[in-house]
Design brief:
Layout (H helix, E strand, L loop, with lengths): L9 E5 L8 E6 L4 E5 L25 E3 L11 E7 L3 E8 L5 E10 L2 E7 L12 E8 L4 E8 L2
């Protein structure tokens, strides 16, 4: 028999999937909490209504990444983002395999509107092949991704 646990009400939290071991934490209404490694969980069954709180909702206005223009592009595209407060931000270009192609910005950015240009070159200054690339802008609290299409 598979061991199971039952709670009247619980708050479920997951650690980011990029960490070495991802955990599901259940916070019970009695104030106790229990964590489980995600790879050890076979199933979860909810028999009562469940509320999901969007943890990123309060931060939504703190960081906005606009679609790049033009898109598709050749030879360059413009990337615009807006920060409501100063943030330590990294803006990178990745290929579809997830490998970093170029870093466009990395460090503390003042609040306000910012504009970057990507000329279709990697971190070593070499032209990259035509194709789809991912623009990843991230800081400690949020991440945003956009697809870029380079046509030659």
């Amino acid at each position: 028999m598979i061991p199971t646990r039952t709670w009247l009400a619980a708050l479920l939290c997951c650690t980011p999937l990029l960490q070495a071991q991802s955990l599901l934490t259940i916070h019970r209404t009695d104030g106790e909490a229990e964590s489980f490694a995600l790879e050890t969980i076979r199933s979860l069954r909810f028999t009562a209504s469940t509320e999901v709180e969007d943890a990123s909702a309060p931060l939504a206005s703190a960081f906005a990444l606009q679609p790049n223009f033009p898109n598709p592009f050749n030879p360059e595209t413009t990337i615009v983002y807006t920060l409501e407060r100063p943030l330590d931000l990294k803006v990178e270009i990745h290929d579809l395999r997830g490998a970093r192609v170029a870093t466009l910005a990395d460090g503390l950015h003042a609040a306000g509107r910012h504009e970057l240009r990507w000329t279709g070159r990697n971190g070593e200054g070499r032209a990259v092949a035509s194709g789809v690339y991912l623009l990843v802008a991230q800081h400690e609290e949020q991440s945003r991704t956009r697809k870029l299409l380079l046509l030659k």
